[in-house]
Design a protein that fits this description.
By secondary structure, the chain is α+β, with helices and mostly antiparallel strands. It has ten helices and six strands. The strands form two sheets. It has a four-stranded antiparallel beta sheet, with no helix packed on it. The protein has a two-stranded parallel ribbon with strand order 1-4.
Length: about 400
C-alpha cells in the first residue's frame, strides 16, 4: 500500500492487481463520498421532533379601554410561560427511527460499493484479457516471422514460389495489424481503469484463470438487508405519527399585575383535541410507501434470484468448455502444429496446409481466452450483490 501511495502521490504510473483496483475505485468514487451526507437529513428530522418541546413566552402591557383611571393607576401587565408536554415514548421512537434510517444508509452504501466493485472487476479482467491476447499474438507473430523467413529463403533458392512468399508476407502483415488493434484496446481499458481508480495504470497484474462460483444467502446481502431495515424504519415512523395524532398537552404559568403593587398568579392546562383526521394523511402515505417497498423488495428478490441462477448455469457450461479446450483440444492442436511445421520443412505439405493448421491452433487459444472472459462476466453479476463475500477482492 505504501508503494502504491508513493506512485499515486508523485503522479507516476504503476501496475495494479485486482484487489487494489477495486479498493482504489471505491476510495475514488465521488458518489460514495457524498452518500454519508444523507445522514444529516435524518439527524435534522430527529431534531425537528425535539423542537416541539420549545416553550413560548407572551408579555402583555396596557389597560382596559373601559377603565376610568389612567394607565399609571390601573395597569394590566401579564407574563405567560407555556410549556408543551410530549409523550416520553415519542423520543424513544424517534431515536429508534433515526438509528434504523442510519443503519439502512450503511447497507445502501455497502450495496453501492458492491456495484462499483463489479464495474472495476469487469474492467480489470477486460484489460487482463487483452494483455493475455497480446502475449498470444506476439507468440503467433514470432512463429509467422520464422515461417516467412523460411519461405523467403526457399524462394531465393528457387524452392518456393512467389505466391507462397506473398501469402507468408500477407499473413504476417495481418497479424501485425491485429496486434496493433489489440494493443489500442488494451490501452483503452487501462485508461478507463485509470479514471475509475484515480491513478494512472500502466498495466494489470493477475492470473487469467476461472474463478470459483460462490453461493450466498440472499437475505444476508446488503442489497436486501437495506430493504428489510428500510421497511422497519417506515413501521417505526408510523409509530411516531400515531403518537403525534394523540391529544397534545401544554401547561402555562401566568403572573399578572392587577393593581398597584398587587400581582396575581394562574396555572393553566391546554389540551389539543385531534378530532378531525389528525395525522391520518401522513399515516396513509407511509402505509402506501411500506406496501410499495414490500413489492419492490420482492420484485428485486425474484430478479436477482433469476439473474444469478442464469449466470451460474452459463458459468458452469463455459467452465466445462474451457476445461475441454485446455485439456484435450489445445494439446492435440499443438501436436498437429508441431507436425505440420516439420512436414512443411520436409516439403510433404503445402504452405496453405501449414497456415490452416497454425490458424486452428491459435483460434483455439483465442477461444479459450474469450470463454474465460465470458465466465468472469457471468461471475461479476454476483459481485454486484455479494461484494467481497463473493469475490474476496476487497
Amino acid at each position: 500500500m505504501l508503494v502504491a501511495f508513493l506512485f499515486a502521490f508523485f503522479g507516476l504510473s504503476f501496475a495494479i492487481d485486482l484487489k487494489s483496483a477495486v479498493q482504489f475505485s471505491i476510495e475514488n468514487s465521488p458518489y460514495l463520498k457524498g452518500l454519508p451526507a444523507e445522514r444529516l437529513s435524518y439527524e435534522g428530522k430527529r431534531l425537528s421532533y425535539r423542537s416541539s418541546l420549545n416553550p413560548s413566552l407572551s408579555v402583555e402591557v396596557g389597560n382596559f379601554g373601559t377603565s376610568k383611571e389612567g394607565f399609571s393607576k390601573a395597569p394590566v401587565h401579564s407574563i405567560t410561560y407555556t410549556q408543551p408536554l410530549l409523550y416520553p415514548s415519542l423520543f424513544k421512537k424517534v431515536e429508534e427511527l433515526y438509528h434504523l434510517q442510519s443503519k439502512a444508509l450503511d447497507y445502501r452504501i455497502e450495496s453501492e460499493k458492491n456495484k462499483l466493485a463489479q464495474e472495476a472487476y469487469l474492467l480489470f479482467y477486460q484489460a487482463l484479457y487483452m494483455q493475455e491476447l497480446l502475449k498470444m499474438l506476439e507468440e503467433e507473430l514470432k512463429l509467422q516471422r520464422e515461417i516467412k523467413d523460411f519461405v523467403e529463403k526457399g524462394f531465393k533458392l528457387g524452392e518456393n514460389t512467389r505466391l507462397e512468399l506473398l501469402r507468408a508476407q500477407r499473413e504476417l502483415q495481418l497479424l501485425e495489424g491485429e496486434k496493433d488493434i489489440a494493443y489500442s484496446r488494451y490501452k483503452a481499458f487501462l485508461e478507463e481503469l485509470s479514471i475509475l481508480t484515480g491513478r494512472e495504470i500502466k498495466e494489470v497484474q493477475g492470473s487469467f484463470i476461472l474463478p470459483k462460483w460462490q453461493e450466498v444467502e440472499l437475505e444476508s446481502l446488503p442489497f436486501f438487508t437495506y430493504y428489510n431495515v428500510l421497511i422497519k424504519s417506515l413501521s417505526r415512523k408510523m409509530d411516531v405519527e400515531r403518537l403525534l395524532s394523540k391529544p397534545s398537552y401544554s401547561v402555562s404559568f401566568t403572573t399578572e399585575k392587577v393593581a398597584d403593587k398587587e400581582y396575581g398568579f394562574r396555572l393553566g392546562l391546554s389540551v389539543n383535541l385531534p378530532i378531525f383526521y389528525a395525522r391520518q394523511g401522513e399515516i396513509l402515505e407511509l402505509k402506501a410507501q411500506e406496501r410499495l417497498l414490500f413489492a419492490e423488495a420482492e420484485t428485486q428478490r425474484q430478479k436477482v434470484f433469476a439473474q444469478l441462477r442464469s449466470a451460474k448455469i452459463q458459468f458452469e457450461q463455459i467452465k466445462k468448455e474451457v476445461e475441454n479446450i485446455e485439456e484435450k483440444l489445445i494439446p492435440q492442436a499443438q501436436k498437429e502444429l508441431e507436425l505440420a511445421l516439420k512436414s512443411y520443412k520436409l516439403r510433404t505439405i503445402t504452405l496453405l496446409e501449414l497456415s490452416q493448421t497454425k490458424r486452428s491452433y491459435y483460434e483455439l487459444l483465442k477461444r479459450k481466452l474469450e470463454l474465460t472472459l465470458q465466465a468472469h462476466t457471468e461471475y461479476a453479476k454476483g459481485i454486484a450483490y455479494g461484494g467481497s463475500a463473493w469475490c474476496g477482492c476487497f
